[in-house]
Amino acid sequence: KRVAVLISGRGSNMQSLIAAAMDPAYPAEIALVLSNRPDAGGLARAAEFGIATAVVDHRDYKGDREGFERAVDAILKAERIEIVALAGFMRLLTPFLVNAWRDRMINIHPALLPSFKGLATHERALEAGVKLHGATVHFVSAEMDDGPIIAQGAVPVLDDDTPETLGARVLGVEHQIYPRALALVASGKAKLRDRRVVSGTDSF
Ligand code: GRF
Asked: Topology of domain 109-204, per CATH?
């Protein structure tokens, strides 16, 4: 399956997907990395791996979110993309792109959903005093950080954690679960039943 990874920043999750897809047995190919920021660090990394890159600068579409998304969608279509993986893509999506890629767009969120949607998840996890925190890969639906859950990974919260130390621990599991979740989707093993994901055997 031809996959586009959408990023806004350093792209460490993007890199974990690229690394996994280097295995010939992996069921997906990272065919495109697209950023809404021309200065995203991940773009250069992707280019080093010989992957096609594209930029759609959201600042060229002030007040026109759908126009921005139509430009993104046109590139995805031109590149014959079949699955979209959001990886630190910091734009709220309108129903246009969500509907265009329904059941074919996935996202990684640095919390155990449905807890801690939105930003500053590690700060809020520490504030709440939870003892387990983690990351979630899910299909994208109209509401932010919502949609059927494909995979989750948990880490302990330690007494002396700061948002930084906790975030680094969570990032480690992000890099493990995102390649596995994408493989489940690309191979067709992650199936939707009543808007929940059933995945059979996870052999990746
Ligand atoms: C990750 O924590 C991801 O879960 C969140 O944004 C961060 C992106 O990091 N949505 P990176 O660009 O993949 O390194």
From this structure: Rossmann fold (3.40.50)
